[in-house]
Structures are given as structure tokens and as C-alpha cells.
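This protein record is not my work; I was only asked to verify it. The record follows directly below this note.
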Amino acid sequence: MPRGRTPRQPARTGRQDRVARAPLSTKPAPQKSRGSKDTRITKDARVGTGAPARPRGEAPAAAPNSRKASTTSAYNPLAPERISEILKRLDQLYPEVTCALTHASAWELLVATILSAQSTDVNVNRVTPELFRKYPTVQAFAALTPEQLQPDVRSTGFFRNKSKSVVGAAKKIVADFGGQVPDDMDRLLTLPGVARKTANVVLGTWFKKPEGVVVDTHVHRISRRLELTTNDDPQKIEQDLMRIIPRDKWILFSHQIIWHGRKLCIARKPKCVDCPLENLCHAADKTWSTVDMHENAKA
């Protein structure tokens, strides 16, 4: 070896510069014989997708839908089987629940329901025993002015409007209905302070007449969580529920959902891990889930 010249050492990184490349092939491309079939293949075959070559001019086959798309399209929140299963589990959870408002007559239930707006049943039940002891009949309420009733119902909130509604309803019942709370929807809705929610409570709980579905804050919220409706207006929610819930279940269903909202499906932090409806619920605000959650299933 000549003096002063050492052989080139490999790089420590393992990379070699001036790596020799294989020479390009100079072999001529094979010639296609006359009369032979066109053997050119499609781009799909060249990239190794495994798709068979298709003849020239033939349209490619439509790509199959993705698994996610097929799963989503198959899910129907209003499927009769799903509705039936929800009702079955509610029956197992709350078989004989009823209205939590304390009452001994249709009039007392009507008053308690009016007072329960923007309040809790527990709070109303603290107020009504003394209220009905002080004014035992509808005639006694009809003899009052709203201002006289206000101190007795102040703790339920919105006491001025509620006093006006209760006294106004009492006066109309005495004057137009012989002192008896009417037992049909049309006449109940003529009473001051009575809308469909209050009328449905009285008709369903006291008269056992399923004329509609009670839509309070719990029914509103949980019906949307369970994707039984996408509406936000109580009257539209009621119409949606009346279409999918059997009529003979309207009264009990309302009470069951109300109790479920108090016990498990709590607004701020639902107890999803303990809920027997969990795997039927896809609500976006679940705290624990074994199924996909949907953005349109909201409270």
C-alpha cells in the first residue's frame, strides 16, 4: 500500500456515501404480437390493491360503504323494539310510581301542580298541608284576593303570579263549574294558570284519563337524551311522545321518567354507571358509556 494512503472507513452512522446503484436495464420492452388481446392493467392493479383488472371502457365498481356509515344508518332511535325495551326496563325500575305531590282531592292536586312550577315537589309538599288546613275548600280560596294568598305561597317562588292563578282558578271553578274541578282537557285549559302540563297531571293522576303526556323539566330533558324527540318546545315534545308511546302507558310513563330524573338521570351529573337504560342511551353528556355517544342526543 502506498505511503500516506489508508483505505476509506465506513461511516459510524451506518450510512455509506457513493453507494453503487444497480444499472438501469437496457433490455428492450417485449413487443406485443399482432392480434393479441390488450394486456394493460388498471391503476388499481398496478398499486397492488388486489383488485382484478377490468376491460377498457368499463366503469369501476362502486366502493362499499364504510363500517361506520353502515352502523350509523342501521341505528334507529325510534325503532319499536327499542321503545318497547325502554318501557320494559322502566316498568322494572318504577312499577307503581305516581305523582309525588301530596293531595287529597282534584282541587288540591290542581293547586299543588300550579305551585310546583319552577319549584320542587318537596318544597311544595312543605307548604300545602298548612295551606289546605287554612283554606279547606275551593270556595275558601275563591273568597280570597291574590294579595291575601301571597304570604302563604311565597316560599314556592313566583308567588305573585301563582297567587293570581290559584285564586283565579278557584273563582272560575265556583262560578262556572259548580265548585268541581272539570275532568276534560278543554275546560281545564280555560282555568287561569293551567296549561297542558298541569291539565295532564290532574287528568292522569286524579281522573285516570290519558289525554296526553306530562312534559315537565325531567321529561323534557330525558326524552331528548334518549332521542325520543329532537324538539325543544314542550308541546312538540308531547306530540312526539304521544306518537311513539302506547296510549295506555302515557300516565305511567310520565311518572316513571320524572322519578328516573330524580333518582338516576340527574341533570348535572347523571349516574350512568348505575342506570339500567345505559346501553340504550347514546346521549352526548353521559358520564360513563358502553355505546357510541351521539351529538344530537342532548339534554
Summary: The first helix runs from residue 43 to 46. Confidence is low (pLDDT under 50) at residues 10-29, 35-55, 57-72. Residues 279 and 291 are 6 Å apart (CA to CA). The chain has 13 helices and no strands.
